[in-house]
Write a structure and sequence with these properties.
Helix content is 28%, strand content 27%. The protein is built from six helices and 15 strands. The protein is α/β, with parallel strands linked by helices.
Length: 241
């Protein structure tokens, strides 16, 4: 049995996902180390003549895709997409996801929701039985940060969660700023026993812009590991008109 490194597994999952792409598709391009492999492979197909139009979910992904010659647009110009391929920080058997480790959760969720099909690519380490192993990112406004953090803690406790809620930084004394100009609070809960309730309650907090729980969005997860490719859900990418 061939043992894949985590990076090789990510690329193997991306290579499986690239098979879903058809000429003329409008694609959402995810953000993060696994999605980066997909964009690299897509760039190779575009160089060979593939015609697609893509919406990136971050400025980082935009720069990568543009450098590869991939045709780009915005979600305002193309509000309905055929397929989005993105990574995840973790997923469970119900295709519930935690995303936002790369800080692009708001744009990722907007693009995923605008897509007929969202497919996640991941290595086997991202598969969990109980969600919450990875800290849950919550994008919040700068105004009212502490008031928002207090409400997040209270709502989380009602959903059975407890743990440290940390302002993400990019260096000592330098908070991480999203592409949308907001902060991110990373919630180290360890376990999310009632993720649906938590997602609903977080969305109701005024200072919360978006949270990293993606529930009911992914149609399938392509997971690569030592045993090869495993598909969770169903791969049914929509054909372009």
């Amino acid at each position: 049995m061939t043992t894949l490194s985590p990076d090789e597994a990510k690329r193997a999952a991306a290579a499986e996902a690239i098979k879903l792409v058809r000429p003329g598709m409008k694609l959402g391009l995810g953000t993060g180390s696994t999605a980066r492999h997909f964009v690299d492979l897509l760039g190779g197909l575009v160089a060979a003549g593939l015609d697609v139009l893509c919406v990136p979910t971050s400025e980082e992904t935009r720069a990568q895709a543009a450098a590869l010659g991939v045709a780009l647009t915005t979600i305002d110009a193309e509000p309905e997409l055929d397929l989005t391929v993105d990574g995840a920080d973790e997923f469970d058997d119900s295709l519930r996801l935690v995303k936002g480790g790369g800080g692009a959760l708001l744009r990722e969720k907007i693009v995923a929701t605008a897509s007929k099909t969202m497919v996640v690519i991941a290595d086997v380490s991202k598969h969990v039985e109980i969600m919450g192993k990875f800290p849950l990112p919550v994008e919040v406004t700068r105004f009212g940060l502490e008031a928002t953090r207090r409400l997040i803690r209270a709502r989380a406790e009602e959903a059975g969660c407890a743990g440290e809620i940390v302002l993400r930084d990019k260096g000592p004394g330098q908070p991480f700023i999203t592409d949308n100009g907001n902060f991110i609070l990373d919630c180290h809960f360890g376990a999310l026993p009632r993720p649906e309730q938590l997602a609903q309650d977080l969305s109701a907090i005024p200072g919360v812009v978006e949270h990293g729980l993606f529930i009911g969005l992914a149609k399938a997860v392509i997971c690569a590991g030592p045993g090869g490719i495993e598909i969770f859900g169903r791969l049914e990418a929509q054909a372009p008109p």
